[in-house]
Amino acid sequence: MDSSFAALWTSLLPIGRDRTTGGYRRFAWTDADMACREWFRDQAASRGLDVEQDRNGNLWAWWGSPGRDAVVTGSHLDSVPDGGAYDGPLGIVSAFAAIDVLRQRGVRPSLPIAVVAFSDEEGARFGVACVGSRLLTGQLSGERARALRDADGFTLAETLTKAGVDHAAIGRDDDALSRIGTFVELHVEQGRGLVDLDRPVGVATSIWPHGRWRFDFTGEANHAGTTLPDDRRDPMLTFASTVLAARTAVEGNDARATFGRVLVDPNGTNAIPSAVTGWLDARARNETTLDDVVADIGAAAAASGESDRVGVAVTSESYTTVTDFDPALRDGIATLIDHAPLLPTAAGHDAGILATAGVPTAMLFVRNPTGVSHSPAEHAEEADCLAGTDALAAVLADLACR
Amino acid sequence: MDSSFAALWTSLLPIGRDRTTGGYRRFAWTDADMACREWFRDQAASRGLDVEQDRNGNLWAWWGSPGRDAVVTGSHLDSVPDGGAYDGPLGIVSAFAAIDVLRQRGVRPSLPIAVVAFSDEEGARFGVACVGSRLLTGQLSGERARALRDADGFTLAETLTKAGVDHAAIGRDDDALSRIGTFVELHVEQGRGLVDLDRPVGVATSIWPHGRWRFDFTGEANHAGTTLPDDRRDPMLTFASTVLAARTAVEGNDARATFGRVLVDPNGTNAIPSAVTGWLDARARNETTLDDVVADIGAAAAASGESDRVGVAVTSESYTTVTDFDPALRDGIATLIDHAPLLPTAAGHDAGILATAGVPTAMLFVRNPTGVSHSPAEHAEEADCLAGTDALAAVLADLACR
Lengths: 402, 402
Known about the structure:
2 copies of one chain form a homodimer. Chain A contains 13 helices and 15 strands. By secondary structure, the first copy, chain A, is of the alpha/beta class. In chain A, the strands form 3 sheets. In chain A, strands 1, 2, 3, 4, 5, 6, 13, 14 and 15 form a 9-stranded mixed sheet that branches. In chain A, strands 9-11-7-12 form a 4-stranded antiparallel sheet, covered by helices on one side. Chain A has a two-stranded antiparallel ribbon with strand order 8-10. The first copy, chain A, starts with a helix and ends with a helix. Chains A and B meet through strand 8, helix 9, strand 9, strand 10 and strand 11 of A and strand 8, helix 9, strand 9, strand 10 and strand 11 of B.
């Protein structure tokens, strides 16, 4: 049977790709994101699916009349800086392709099916992840969201206005939420679990608890040449000690701790910095471990700060508890699709936000040969993507034809 | 006797000052720098001094006809990011004020006196320090200078064209150089040597050898949550180890080693970086010590890179050998101005560039109560600045009335 997957995939691929790095820069509400949204509308229109943008900027394409008990699938179109092509878009391309598969087979669902593209999942621009699904479910208030700022100082409120979205109306949307009977998100695996198991598709068990913490190191700007070592209050030293403490803190734990982002002020070659800010991304199999890891890193930072005479302040910017997906839904899906293996994940997803909000939710993972993600090198073989599409089609048929 | 110092100082103070930090952002050829240059022309004009801009963008204000054996004084107007008010401008304000002092006293110099403002001393924008004086003396070629790029990707050639400077004409300027009989630069001290000696003004003996090295750490971008610690190639870890190695390398040495500037790619909270670039500023009392310190840091970086599976490349971006100021000139000046104390400095200056080029050169330092420099907190007491002006006036009179 012909699949529409390749045509869908190819049409989305050029949008928002950086020519130098080969990575994607599809940040929320930028030109690249708007072009992805236009692509979504075009794909829906060419399939006769009605599109609506909800109050929070999430896009919905409907097969059947929008209404209760809908079977919803989808993911997100935005990316991290220089991200890969698969994280997010694979779930949306597979969703449209799965609908094509069902129609080719003459399936007539008794429940409405919707494809959703959630806004700003990665949080690359405004610093908070899953903004679209968190607003929808009320886990992020409209008030806090409006005040978020990007690196150029623009608020989300201003940005939404420019994009034609009424920022006064953002926030928990019970109408949109109440229509979702089930949510299934297909996603490229961000690890090598399926490689080790030699299987193309798997089903998620849970999402590790995870969060982001901002570490502000405050020293004193001074001349890099003339200032004696003992006279320095150099926050770069304290930052460096903390980066290494994060590596030590996860040794022997089922946890991750990463400093991937840093800002230095004034960031001049011949000036000791006045301030360094680093962001810690931490995750663990359970909340006790996560809390212990973050506490260890905070204590190491404070101790280094004391000996360096550098101020250290740690601010929690987000915290997501462990998310267990619906066990009955999960096991039913695994049985349906060739007894697919069950895997946990350390990555956050819109599916996790919906599960936390009480929506029966499941996730499918497609094999990633290297495990690399959030990188231009992120990849999945086309045969595995087609297996994912077929699995998703089977799940949608099973859920929507009851 | 009235001094014009305060009026000169106050008129320059607001230009290029950041309202939030209180620091200066007078980067070469920006609006702030152009405004400083306009200020220089205004001050010269109000004193009846002819102004010329040489082929390399350095400004000269002449008391008497431009010609051989001129007694030249001055410094620079540009700043590091969020720099202080004194580093550079104090030397130019004091030069104009010293001319006012001499005129009030009715001094009639037999040799021409010039005030010079060298372009782009700090190198904050294009990454190379002392661009104006290095071009003048041929220590930086026009070809290399034209290709320098700022953070926004603009070349110095493009920037000079916009500023009305013919970039094809930059490079060694024997005509301008041959006129300089003696050069005396007054500068705020960037340390507490004069505080410890309880003296307002000192004379420089030498400038420590110093340089800048770029450390490129190359790893692999990946997901901060899902990538196992052992699967990571995280260049932030190697950078952090190298920052701490720099601190260790100067322990017990008469040396400085600082990482004040870092760029991270892609710099996302939930992405392991693909690359980190850090810049090392290193200085030492002698070249053997400097070379040893840089070699130690390079070796530590390579060792960390090997265990982190991160590529490390070290590139020397600039290197300045030890600079001894003219001993006869130095000792004569010290005797003249109340037996001022002699001090070495770890900071580079245009005076060092001219001394290296064979120009008889001296430097005066004005006391800095905290020693802080390259920071908004940089300061000198007005009484000490007036003592510096008087000392400079005495030196100019002695040199120009022979």
